[in-house]
C-alpha cells in the first residue's frame, strides 16, 4: 500500500492512489497533560486553540515546514495512517511519500523519515515540495524548457525554476502564511489596542485579506480583548487596512522570486517570460496575490487550479509512477 502525505505547517493532506485526496486536516494535535493521552487531532484539535484549560495543551508539531516536536509529529502521522488504512496497516505496512521543503537540512529530512518509520511505515520516501507542487499543478517538469513555481505555505515560501525533471535554481524562506497572520494581529493590537487570537487573525486574512488595495473595500467586524480595559470589544476593520498590515511580508516573498530570477540561466529566464509563473499552496488563495507579483516582477503570474492540493496531487502522480520518479525526485531511508 502506498500513501502520499503533504505534511504542512498548517494543513496536512493524505493522498491514496485510485482514491485521490482522502484526508485534509489542520496539522494540530491536542494532548491531555495529566494522562499523557491524545485527545484530538486535526480540525477537532484546531477548534480547541486558545480555549483550553491548563491540563490540555494544543500543539502544532511542525514549524516553518519542518518537525519541531518529533514525538507529537509521529503520533499525528500514525493517526493519519490508521485513519486512511482502516485497520490494514496492522498487517501491511504502507510505503509513505512525504513532501518536504526544498530548503530542508539533512538532519530535518532524517527526522521526517524517522517519524514516518516509527509511525508504522515500511519505507519512507521524501520529495521536494516545489517538484510535487509543479507536478500537481500540471507543469510538464521533464520537458527541456524552464518553469517557475512558487509554493506559499503556512511556514515556508519556496520559489524554484524546474527543467528536465530537476530543480535548477531554488530559494526557500521561512516567511509565509503564519507571518501574514502575525502581521494582522500586530497591526490590530498597535492601532486599535485590541488583542486577537491566531484563529481570528487567520479568519480575517481569509475573509477580507487582499494583496492590492480595493477601490471599494470590504469590511469585517472583529472581536477581541481591549488591552486598556481588559474587556471584550468589537471593531470594524477594512480590507485596505489588512493590505497595509501584510505589505511588508509580501515584499519579502516577492524578493524571494526576484532572487531566483536573478540566478536563473538566460535561456530558462526567456522560457519563464513566455509562459509565466505558477503560484500554489494556501498563500496562493490570498486575493490579488497574482496581480501583485506580476506587477512587481514583470512576469505573468497565474494561480494553480486547487492551489492547496497541488503538493498532494503531485505526490499522487509520483506514487502512481514510483519507478519513473524514484531516481530524479526522491531520497529514501
Automatic annotation (TrEMBL):
Gene3D superfamilies: 3.30.420.40. ATP binds at residues 154-156, 202-205. GO terms for molecular function: ATP binding. It is found in: Cytoplasm. GO terms for cellular component: cytoplasm. The keyword ATP-binding applies. One of its GO terms (biological process) is cell morphogenesis. CDD domains: ASKHA_NBD_MreB-like (cd10225). Its main location: cytoplasm. Forms membrane-associated dynamic filaments that are essential for cell shape determination. Acts by regulating cell wall synthesis and cell elongation, and thus cell shape. A feedback loop between cell geometry and MreB localization may maintain elongated cell shape by targeting cell wall growth to regions of negative cell wall curvature. Forms polymers. This is Cell shape-determining protein MreB.
